[in-house]
Amino acid sequence: MCRSCGAIVGAGQTQCAVCGAPSATQPTTAPARQVDRETVRFARAVLNRPYKFTIIFLMANIFVFLLMWESSGLTTNALAGFPEEVLVAYGAKLNFRIAGPNYEWWRFIAPMFIHVNLIHLLVNMYSLLMVGPFVEKLYGSAKFVVFWILTGIGGVVASYLTVRPQLATNAFARFIFKAEDVPSAGASGALFGLVGVLFVFGIKFRRELPEGFKRAFGTGMLPIIFINLFIGFLGRGFIDNAAHLGGLLSGAALAVAVDYQRPGVRRAITGAWRVMQILALAIVLIGFYKVARNFDRPALQAARAAPNPNTLIFLNYVNAMNQVQETVAAIIHKNDQSGVNEVIAHAQEAPAPDARAVELRDQLLAIFKQILRASPPPDHEPGRPPPLDQKLVNQFYEWRKTYDEWLKRAAKTYNATQ
Predict the structure, then answer these.
(1) 327 DSSP assignment
(2) CA separation (Å) from 297 to 53, 83, 84, 90?
(3) Each residue of 221-244: b (16+ CB within 10 Å) or e?
(4) Nearest CA to 175 among 190, 164, 187?
(5) Candidates 141, 188, 250, 375; catalytic one
(6) Residue by residue, what is the 3-state secondary structure of 241-303?
(7) How far apart are CA 355 and CA 348, in angstroms?
(8) Closest Cα partner for 148 from 7, 45, 54, 41?
(9) Higher local confidence (pLDDT), 47 or 131
(10) DSSP letter string over 102-157?
């Protein structure tokens, strides 16, 4: 936090981007930059305003995320990506669910409050905490609420309109157009809308803004916009760039038409903006009421009951390894070699969940084959078979200790105990 104007200063920055004052982390030997007094006065007048709806929206996103995690079984794997059934149940955008005959219009609203995984949530909420307070302090809470909700809806509408498989023919076309109708969600459209607001704000009011604000907003937002669009181009297979651009253009259009609360001018919020704020919040509440009314609990229960693919691979691998161990034990104690070829084939064909599992399987099969070669033929006379080389037996038991240690760790990794 800047000590001069109260603006948020990023980690590692040596000076405030708004007023130019040195940060607390700046080395004392660095030459102090002359502070723009007019910028400081302007910044203090603006940045001392509250930003309560930024915090409210942030908490709402976290709350919905926790509900989605609970619906996913509270597993660590779910934090890396919620099942599609959970995303759809909570209102993710899906074109075929919005279009007829379903007409689930609330999917234009709910996506701005839901996220696909923990990283997605953290990135967007950090961005909201960085950008949201500036917009809310400059324009006031009523306008900020309208901006957030309208630009969020604008982003979802843009995403809806750009599911065009016939147009997604090359890398540049796929930057905007999508070849498949897959669930889309996230607050990114609304965040890009706030960036669009600050971009137009800095240009529209450049003649009355002090230098610090001219550097921070307006053309100062271009690096942020271009960097995020470049990241979107690299991740065009899973990043919804159309939603980002839709939010950005919606925010820019709103900022062109809307004035901001100038410092030193005591002007109460007009009744029209207060009504629009209430209507915008009502739309969100009605949207989530419709989500709750249409909540697909059977699909969620089925998704929670069905193990994920990695868990299935792990369980199949363990089953194959158990068969090999049982066969080895039967050979050691009874010289029972029935079904040996089938057991080996099953173990070789079962997919391994990770590289360590492959290594353990190869070690076991190598020991298995050595024991087979050292064992008497299956038609040996009845009775107690001659003892095997104790070194081979000890090698098998040492391997089993190593395998059991891996198995305990892997069971947690692949959620096989839940």
Answers:
(1) H
(2) 31, 13, 13, 11
(3) beebeeebeeebeeebeebbbbbb
(4) 164
(5) 188
(6) HHHHHHHHHHHHHHHHHCCCCCCCCCCCCCHHHHHHHHHHHHHHHHHHHHHHHCCCHHHHHHH
(7) 14
(8) 54
(9) 131
(10) T--GGGGTGGGG--SSHHHHHHHHHHHHHHHHHHHHHH-HHHHHHHHHHHHHHHHH
Fold of 49-305: Rhomboid-like fold (1.20.1540)
> In whole angstroms, how far apart are CA 256 and each of 2, 246, 316?
29, 16, 60
Token reading at 31: 């030459």
Which two three-digit tokens encode residue 403?
């395998």
Rounded to whole angstroms, how far apart are CA atoms 365 and 348? 9
The two three-digit tokens of residue 197, written as one number: 């607001």
Is residue 118 very low, low, confident or very high in pLDDT (cuts 50, 70, 90)? very high
Could you tell me which of 253, 226, 225, 221 has the C-alpha nearest to residue 147?
253
Count CB atoms within 10 A of the CB of residue 146.
19
Active site residue 120: no
Tokens of 304: 């929670």
- DSSP state, residue 337: -
Q: Where are the domains of the chain?
A: 1-36, 49-305, 309-413
Do residues 247 and 188 touch, judged by C-beta distance below 8 A?
yes
The encoded tokens of residue 293 equal: 């009314």
Residue 370 near residue 295 (C-beta atoms within 8 A): no
pTM of the predicted protein model: 0.66
> CA-to-CA distance for 367 and 361, rounded, in angstroms?
10
Query: CA–CA distance from 39 to each of 6, 16, 343 (Å)?
Result: 11, 11, 77
214, 220 Cβ separation under 8 angstroms = yes
* Of the candidates 185, 103, 202, 195, the residue with the CA atom closest to the CA atom of residue 148: 195
- Predicted confidence (pLDDT) per residue in 370-398, tens digit: 888 887 776 555 455 556 678 888 888 89
The yes-or-no answer on residue 188 being catalytic is: yes
pLDDT band at residue 3, thresholds of 50, 70 and 90? low
Closest-CA residue to 233 (of 162, 175, 159, 168): 175
Measured distance CA(336)–CA(377) in Å, rounded: 10
Catalytic residue among 71, 141, 184, 244: 244
